[in-house]
């Protein structure tokens, strides 16, 4: 099997197919899909070097016959997108519970390593690296529909250090990824706490109901409790706390600067000012000009992605690409405005267009109550930002180590590496 490779390495460069087989997914029919059952992994599930089951379509478990069992997946499987404009060559590692076995759809492929000459996690880190992802994308991006065949994928040359050295390399990189995953899971928990508090106060109106029944609201001091009314009144949105008014989003937010177009020449690999994109990945590059938006832990900014409908809270100076729209609260706490807009909207109904976004309605409390909410959740927001900085630093270390490890520039044993970075 002939091969080519995008890198030079002190280790032998040999086709993936020397140590791995390849299984292409199954063409499930549209009538096979249902709301509950086994998740089906499609190309869209491969994002940011991960494969997740969230938002997957499902099939009934009894659809999987003995013949189709080979298309069932396990946690940790390495998958690749075999087609699609902008997605061909994208690699990810499946994350799911150990007892869940998702099914693999057509045009998604799975690597099955022999675990003699090629270690699965080592293969993952090599071919999910930026260099190999770009190389695989270019291989599949000819005229017409981008496409990669199993033969082409298995012909790609990768470094083949001794198997035990592959294991050691993968262990180091896995340790970094495990720490990153833990920090992200912690942040998800902290965000869920803040969202739950917002829902209790401003959606379910629990403190108002408590005062209406003659009880003290739980989990707050007397000054904060005094800010809530003790009765309801009718509105166009139904019963709302007395004195609160129905308001459009545009009434309590202020839009900041518009993003600009950044290309490969202006989006640097390193610089002073991060550039934000529309997806969950966040920073796509840097520049060294004046940031278009100033933000901090004490004065965060909300960014609204006009096409992907994704929102996030930013607490550092940044610039943004086109269609990333920053805004802050107007006469309300900005963190309150973030939850009021993010948690109360079905983005898919209007595909994230700003003009449709600002006319959405919600119930607006007194400004002092929004400030009290912001003060209450501010420690969570700070912790989230600290965790973000930590896992961004760990990701930088991982991405710096990876090419040096797989090229043989940095050789193991692992005790030569300062593992304090993982603490």
Question: How would you characterize this protein structure?
Answer:
It is a single chain. With 423 residues, this protein is of the alpha+beta class. The chain folds into two domains: 13-160, DNA methylase specificity domains (Adenine-n6-DNA-methyltransferase TaqI, Chain A, domain 2), CATH 3.90.220.20; 193-375, DNA methylase specificity domains (Adenine-n6-DNA-methyltransferase TaqI, Chain A, domain 2, Alpha-Beta Complex). Helices cover 32% and strands 20% of the residues. It has ten helices and 22 strands. The protein has helices spanning 120-127, 130-140, 150-154, 163-202, 206-212, 222-226, 249-252, 334-342, 354-357, 367-407; strands at 13-15, 20-24, 38-41, 46-47, 50-52, 58-59, 78-81, 91-95, 103-104, 108-113, 157-159, 232-235, 238-241, 245-248, 253-255, 273-276, 283-287, 301-305, 311-314, 319-320, 324-329, 361-364. The strands form seven sheets. Strands 2-10-7-8-5-4 form a six-stranded mixed β-sheet, with helices on one face. α4 (163-202) runs antiparallel to α10 and α8 crosses α10 (367-407).
